[in-house]
Amino acid sequence: MGALVMRVACAWLLLLQLAGASHVVYKNLEMEAATMANVPPSIVDPRLRTGYHFQPPKNWINAPMYYNGWYHFFYQYNPKGATWDNIVWAHSVSRDLINWQALETALEPSIPADKYGCWSGSATTLLDGTPVIMYTGVNRPDVNFEVQNVAYPRDASDPLLREWVKPDHNPIIVPEPDINATQFRDPTTAWLSSDGQWRLLVGSVAEGGARGAAYVYRSRDFRRWRRVPRPLHSAATGMWECPDFYPVEAGFAAGLDASALAAASGGPKVRHVLKNSLDLRRYDYYTVGTYDEEAERYVPEDPAGDEHHLRYDYGNFYASKTFYDPAKKRRILWGWANESDAHAHDVAKGWAGIQAIPRKVWLDFGGKQVLQWPVEEVEALRHQPPVTVKDTVIKPGQHVEVTGLQQTAQADVEVSFVLSSLDGAETLEPEFAHDAERLCGVKGADVQGGVGPFGLWVLASADMQERTAVFFRVFKAAGSSRPVVLMCTDPTRSSLNPDLYLPTFAGFVDTELSDGKISLRTLIDRSVVESFGAGGKTCILSRVYPSLAIDMNARLYVFNNGKADVKVSRLSAWEMKKPLMNGV
After folding, report:
1. With helix as H, strand as E and coil as C, how does 495-526 read?
2. Which H/E stretch holds residue 50?
3. Contact of 289 with 305, CB cutoff 8 Å
4. Is residue 171 helix, strand or coil?
5. E-assigned strands of 364-493?
6. What torsion do the CA atoms of 284, 493, 373, 131 make, to the nearest 10 degrees?
7. pLDDT at 276 over 70
8. Contact status, residue 122 vs residue 63, Cβ threshold 8 Å
9. pLDDT averaged over the chain?
10. Separate counts of helices (H) and strands (E) for the chain
């Protein structure tokens, strides 16, 4: 896809974050559109709308912050249709990241610097506590000439920040002649450095577009900004969208505030995460490294990090953004997931795009990767008590239904597996050593292995014609006895509906299985399957659209398609309630 499409995707993420505050069902619109578009009725079934993931009431969606006791979610939203057009910055607020209230539109095209588009951006809190939005505007009709703008609340004493104003000195950052103005967007949250200057990044390209780049801009007054000549970092990946840059500390689960950290001069254990959304691949990648403020350079810890990328999520997850939550001293990650059905389906449904569950993110003890886990507030939606399964051995070729829940189409499942032996693990062929997704495509859930595949069948129909598999499969590296653990979501049998995009998603899990144990948590939400492997080391979100396994007709199973026994030491499953959401 071209730059416009990717730019739109970034905007979608922000839009989704703000607009998804309602679960109003427009049945007449859906059925009429389905008839006109010749779309299968199950595709527009309102029971496929998410129950507890953030989603707008209708139409199409794609800079979170915390202020005076409220979480604010700004996202790009199309109030007129389920396609990318007529984009505004919608705005929702919450006390707990789960229950949302939609407010008035925060930003829409209204000045010369954003006349042809208000695109993605970020929020920053200034030293006096004033919140500021930095965003990309398009100011020419004939070309996507991108500039960076700023907006301030009309009344900073209003904790809901209902109204925003754009000062006359916009735009505050204009691309220099050596910058491709059509690939210059998505300013990050700014941080105050030890030299008293504000810094932020803008995503772009270098060397004629061959390299993605994050450029540093500095300012003393948040009005006049100057670019550091060379990028903070770049790599041969193509355009970098939606950059994000923040400090972390190995084994320190609490979040770090970038500005406060700079004022304290950081520390020897502090590292930084640089994340970029790749225009060419449509995935979010990150590296962990060292930031030299004086030299204005970032160096990844792993020299091969730019080639063999780490990803927040190995599934349908893009244009993500983190923010520091001072109320609970944590860093929270938001990500956007688009639809995997056809464009005509989106129009017929009247909605498109959802937000992933907000995740707490921190650096692991080894300092090699970030860990992610659904924010604790999600657990308040669990119907108590859970259904539990304990000390149950799943034999090769066996599957066991998890019963006792009234419905499993909207559920939270946590399961711990114990492997009886790793001796039968297959040898991992070198061609798959850095390509988990292709490996999963070849070794899917229905392909018997030595140790695995084992895991969950979710959103399964009674006759098993439809089922989505979330599983692990254990290999051994060539010439080594070290296990290589694959985690995969396989939706190839998720629906009987035609014209669906059903890719397998996969990532490797950094674990040695020294005790033979591995855990999985899966959030099931009607058309979303969001999974966290090994305590959040590997995460995969997938969109599925069952035609049979909908609502009360969905079932849940544990399965083992390997040659070795697998024990479920404990499984807990909760039905999930709908949060309180008031729509736009």
Report:
1. CCCCCCCCCCEEEEECCCCCCCEEEEEEEEEC
2. none
3. yes
4. coil
5. 370-374, 387-394, 399-401, 410-419, 426-428, 451-460, 468-477, 483-490
6. 50
7. yes
8. yes
9. 88
10. 5, 39
What amino acid occupies position 221?
A: D
Distance CA 323, CA 325 (A): 6
Q: How many other C-beta atoms can be found within 10 angstroms of the C-beta atom of residue 165?
A: 10
- Identify which of 542, 462, 548 has the alpha carbon closest to the alpha carbon of residue 497: 548
Q: Contact 442/428 with Cβ under 8 angstroms?
A: no
Pairing of strands 581-582, 426-428: unpaired
pLDDT in tens, 48-103: 888 999 876 544 444 799 999 999 999 887 776 655 666 789 999 999 999 999 99
The stretch 246-253 carries a mean pLDDT of 92
Residue 88 bridge partners (DSSP) = 77
231, 216 contact by CB (below 8 A): yes
CB 360 within 8 A of CB 372: yes
- Sign of the dihedral through C-alpha 445, 446, 447, 451: positive
Query: Which residues, in sequence order, are bridge partners of residue 532?
Result: 521, 539
Q: Which of 39, 48, 584, 149 is nearest to 354 (CA)?
A: 48
pLDDT classification of 353: cutoffs 50, 70, 90: confident
How far, in Å, CA of 329 to CA of 581, rounded? 25
Mean pLDDT of the 553-557 span: 98
Predicted confidence band at 186 (pLDDT cuts at 50, 70, 90)? Answer: very high
Is residue 138 predicted with pLDDT exceeding 70?
yes
Asked if residue 241 has pLDDT above 80, the reply is: yes
Beta partners for residue 427, in sequence order: 476
Instruction: Tally the residues of the chain.
Output: 584
Whole-angstrom distance, CA of residue 370 vs CA of residue 286:
9
- Beta strand 59-61 with 351-352 is parallel
- Nearest residue to 65 (alpha-carbon basis) of 358, 339, 282, 314: 358
The torsion region of residue 172 among left (phi > 0), alpha (psi -120 to 50) and beta comes to alpha
pLDDT band at 514 (very low <50, low <70, confident <90, very high): confident
CA distance 355 to 337: 6
DSSP 488: E
Residue pair 48/550 in contact (Cβ under 8 Å)? The answer is: yes
H/E stretch holding 435 reads none
Contact of 468 with 458, CB cutoff 8 Å: yes
Residue 217 is which amino acid? Y
Q: How is 344-388 classified by DSSP, letter by letter? A: HHHHHHTEE-EEPPPEEEEE-TTSSSEEEEE-GGGGGGBPSSPEE
Can you tell me the distance from the alpha carbon of 30 to that of 390, in angstroms, rounded to the nearest whole number?
Answer: 43
For the chain, how big is the Rg over CA atoms in Å? 23
For CA atoms 211, 229, 320, 250, give the dihedral sign: positive
Query: By CB neighbour count within 10 A (0-12 exposed, 13-18 middle, 19+ buried), where does 437 fall?
Result: middle
